[in-house]
Amino acid sequence: MSDAKAKxxxxxxxTPDLCVIGAxxxxxxxxxxxxxxxxxxVLIDRQATGGRTTSLAAKALVEAATRIQDMRExxxxxxxxxxxxxxxxxxxxxxxxxxATTATNQQAERLKALGIHLIQGEARFIDRGSxxxxxxxxxxxxxxxxxxxxxxxxxxxxxxxxxxxxxxxEDALSGLTRLPGRLVVLGGSGPAVALAQAFRRxxxxxxxxxxxGILPEHDAEAVMILRQKLLREGxxxxxxxxxxxxENRRSGLKLTLAGLSGEATLEASHILVAGRRRADxxxxxxDLGGIRSDADGVxxxxxxxTANRRVHALxxxxxxxxxxxxxxxxxxxxxxxxxSVLFRQKGSLDPTGNPRIAWxxxxxxxxxxxxxxxxxxxxxxxxxxxxxxxxxxAAAAGRTEGYVKxxxxxxxxxxxxxxxxxxxxxxxxxxxxxxxxxxxxxxxAGIALPELAASDASRRAALSFLASxxxxxxxxxxxxxxxxxx
Length: 486
What we know:
Radius of gyration: 26 Å
Number of helices: 15
Low-confidence stretches: none
Structural class: alpha/beta
Helix content: 25-40%
Shape: globular
Largest sheet: 5 strands, parallel
Number of strands: 25
C-alpha cells in the first residue's frame, strides 16, 4: 500500500468538546451530565463500562451481615428467633443483584443513546491536546481523567506468591462464591473494619491487623464505641502488631506478626487487603500531556485542574489538592469539573463539607473541619452531645449505642459534627446541608423534625446549646419585666 493510501485509510481525529478517560461511576456521571447539555462527548475505557464495583459489593456484604446480626439480637425486642445457617451462594446472589442496579444505567447501549461516543481501549496522551486509543486520535477541547484506583498490595514477604484465591483484595469481593473460614484482614481504614465485622457476622473467624489502630481518621471517642462492639462480636484486634511475612502451608496460611511483645503467628485460610488503593494512571503517559502526578495520583489544584489547564482529574485517581477528599466526594468532583468544562466557572474543593462515613456497625459519620477542632485553643469551642440512650425512638428500636456530637464556636457557628450509631450515614445528611449553607446550631435547633425518629438526637443536641441561656441574668430580668404586662 502506498503512503497516500495508508494516510487515506487512517481514521480522522475526533474533536469533541469533552473527552472522559475512564468509564467508572464518576466518568459515566460526568459524560452523561455533559451530553445532557448538548456537548459532544467521547468516553474511553479499557474494559466494559461501569468500572470497578468495589464499594457497592462491600456495602452489599455489610448489609447482609447486618440482617443476620439483627436476627441474633432480636430477643432483645422480645422476638427470639432461630438464626438460619448462612448460605454462601445466596450471599453471592445478593451481591450480584445489588451490582445489577447500577449496571443497567451504565450499559453501553444506553450511553450511546444519550449521544456519548464510546471507545474501548487503552488511552494515552500523545501531546498536550491529544489522546490516542489504538489508531484513533481524540483532539478534545477539554479532557477529564477518571480512571479510578486499584488495590495497593503491600510489600509483605510471601504475599505476592500466594494463590489469588487466597490473597483477596476489595476488587475480588463481587466474585466471591465461598465465604472464608479463617480470615485475616490487613488494614484499619473504614472499608477494612466494616468488612472484617461483616465476615465475622457471616460466620468467618476474623483477625484484624492494623498497627496504626482502627479508623485513625475518625473521632477517637466514637471509635472506642465501635472497638468495644467488634470485640464483643468476636473480631480479634491486633492494633499494636504488624504483619512481617506470610507463608503458604499445607494446612493453610501462616502469618507472622511483630509487636511490642515480640513475634506471634496466626493461622488463616485467606488474607484480605482492604482500604489501600493506588491511582490507576500508569498507562496514560501523563508526561507527554504536560500533566504532573504524585504519590496520591494526578496532581490537581482545588478546582481539579492539572498542570495542563485543559485537563481535569476527578475521583480516586486525583491527587494533589484532592487527595484528602477523593474517596469521599465523587459527585462533588463531577459538579466542579462539569461547571469548569461547560461554563468556564472555577470551582473549589471544600473537603470539610464532605461527609466521611465508616459503614461498620455502629456506623460512624462525620463532617466538618476536625483538624481545626483538634488544633483549636482551649475554651474557644463548645462540645454538645446527646446520647441515643435518651432518645425514645432509639430505645423503642433497641438501638441505643452512640451519640450525636456537635462542635461549635462560642456564638454557635458549626465547626464539625460526628454521629456514631445506627443509621449515622443517613442522620448526618442535614448537618452536611447546615455546614455548607452556613447555618448555626440555633437555626438547626429551630427546625421541626419527625416525632419518634432517631433524628431527635440531633435536635436535642442542638437545643442543648441554648441551655446556658436559661441561667442568663439578663434574660431572667427581661422575662420578669415582661410578666408585668400579663
